[in-house]
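User:
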Amino acid sequence: QVQFVESGGGLVQPGGSLRLSCSASGFTLDYVDIGWFRQAPGKEREGVSCISSSGHTRYADSAKGRFTISRDNAKNTVYLQMSSLKPEDTAVYYCARGPCRWPPYLTVSDYTSWGQGTQVTVSS
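Assistant: Predicted structure:
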């Protein structure tokens, strides 16, 4: 059974950094495109970034220049390094498998096998 587990969330001050991890069990990530999404209270889930199996990356405008997605296939894990965090980045962050090779890249309905999420809170 395909399953993702997200970790690395927490409370951080504005301007701070966090690294989220998305680990897979039940299958290898080597040939899978992975996306990171987030959902703030009262808002719809939105795409943040994705990485293809070959390492090509895409970012939502809100993440460009501040977030970096990467993958370590040996550890079967995808990371999301977040820097210069803002209060508006507060959300539950999820990873899932889906297409990151052609537009529109980060459509929620195209992704499956969602993890349980990890909470990120940016507050002073």
